[in-house]
Amino acid sequence: MDHDRPHHVGLEARLAEIVTPTLDSMGYELVRVAVAGRDRPTVQIMAERADGAAMAVEDCEAISRHLGAVIDVADPMPGEWTLEVSSPGIDRPLTRAKDWNRFAGHLARAELTTPLDGRRRFTGTVLGADAAAGRLRLDDGSEVALPLDQLRRARLVLTDALIEATANATRTRTN
Q1: CATH homologous superfamily, domain 10-86
Q2: Would you report the helix, strand and coil content of the chain in percent, each value rounded to 5?
Q3: Which of 3, 38, 43, 116 has its CB 3.0 to 4.6 Å from that of 131, i.e. a possible disulfide?
């Protein structure tokens, strides 16, 4: 597993394979692919700028134009579908080891696909990650290593500290 890429399975993994080269060539990184709905599914692509700058509406529009064509040509899904492109936002998902490392010190919630020590859901302070697992410090002071390939979802919790850190990072990049 490439720790710089999000882990996907099934159709979402196929879509990630299809869109990643185009995103990379445009200067963006894939954060997440999700497919929702049945009759006319929605393909949700979450991306961020590779240079770390804030995403603008124009970025999402450009990505949408390019990826719509790429997905059409690859034709991984039968029938009609809708494409949605967005940025990760402040309370972003943690889908890659680099996300866990970047947001170390912030509060996150995670859910596994299979239980670890009898539980699936965890909330704690992000400690970082290696190629195999993201680490959290739980409220009781214990630490847990969550296998990245077993994460159903992991997301930062919106806190004043996260808002302040995000605002400071944005100010630093624009100065």
Answers
A1: RimP-like superfamily, N-terminal (3.30.300.70)
A2: 35, 35, 30
A3: 3
Instruction: Quote the longest CA-to-CA distance of the chain.
Output: 51
State the amino acid at position 41 in one-letter form: P
Question: How far is the C-alpha of 93 from the C-alpha of 102, rounded, in Å?
Answer: 12
CB neighbour list of residue 100: distance below 8 Å, 6 or more residues apart: 94, 126, 127, 128, 129, 134, 135, 154
Mean pLDDT of each 10-residue bin along the chain, 175 residues long: 75 96 97 93 96 93 96 91 94 94 97 95 97 96 95 95 81 54
Classify 3 as helix, strand or coil: coil
Tokens 């124009």, residue located: 58
Q: Which two tokens stand for residue 149?
A: 């390939």
How many CB atoms within 10 Å of residue 22? 16
What type of residue is 15? L
C-alpha to C-alpha distances, 146 to 23, 66, 120, nearest whole angstrom: 28, 34, 10
Q: What angle do CA 68, 71, 75 make, to 5 degrees?
A: 135
**Measured distance CA(173)–CA(163) in Å, rounded:** 15
The CATH number of 97-174, from 1.10.645.10, 3.40.47.10, 2.30.30.100, 1.10.3720.10, is 2.30.30.100
